[in-house]
Amino acid sequence: MNEGVVEEIRAAGGEIYAITSEPQHLADEAHAHWELNFENIGDPHQEIPKTCSERGWLTLYANKGNLEFLRRGAKWKVEHPKGYFQPGVLALTESGRVLYRWRSVPSAANLNGTVARPTARHAWGAIERSLAAGDTAADVAHDDQPEIDSPPPPRPLFVAALIANGWFVGVKSFAYSPGVDSVPKRFAVAYSRWLLFIAVWAAALFFLPLAPVAFAFACWVAWIVRDTRRTLGGLGVQQELKANR
Fold first, then answer.
1. What range does the domain containing 37 cover?
2. Which of 9, 51, 226, 241 is deepest in the core (most CB within 10 A)?
3. pLDDT by 10s per residue, the chain, length 245
4. Sign of CA dihedral 18, 85, 155, 163
5. Smallest Cα–Cα separation from 12: which of 20, 22, 4, 3?
6. Total domain count, the chain
């Protein structure tokens, strides 16, 4: 939207929609908060992606695991009766010809689908080329190597941010909530908390006996490792959203 891609799509006779696995009231709140100029549609029962899969257009992945990680970071009731689907991009003509399609395939490389999205300019460029090929052209293949918006951070840094976001008592997601800062800003705040965390432990070592401080730190490490493994472990339960499921 900020790059003018939405206007270019409309000038070419198209329209853009955002579809989320959240309920409609949260889709409306995000629409107002981000001041979007295209419609947001809530689809918690995954009817739209399943229809897309049934028609052979695009099959998304969905997280079917534990939602505790998402609940920890959200300031709203998490309503995912069938899990939440991973990102995808689909462009169609009125006749149903596929102009562009991409889906996030969860892996360690993209932090289980958390990051790495095609840029709007890349997707629109691919759509323009498909349009130029004419109505008789075949459906395009999946875009497996798009130009992405930002590379994923190293996993240790990502987990460190989650720990700091939970104030070091447990990992906490950066889930969207109305009125909160953008994810990059919240990441920066989370990383800055590590300075305070290190300073507190350094002060404890300076003023207190070594043995109890070492014991307390070992207990914290054991707790945070357990919490991280238990909470993030459920994110690996991913399934393709096919129409027969």
1. 1-245
2. 241
3. 888 999 999 999 999 999 998 889 888 988 988 899 999 999 988 999 999 999 999 999 988 766 777 777 777 666 666 778 899 999 999 999 999 999 998 887 888 788 899 999 999 999 999 999 998 999 999 999 999 988 888 889 999 999 999 999 999 988 877 777 778 888 899 999 999 999 999 999 999 999 999 999 999 999 999 999 888 876 656 778 776 54
4. positive
5. 4
6. 1
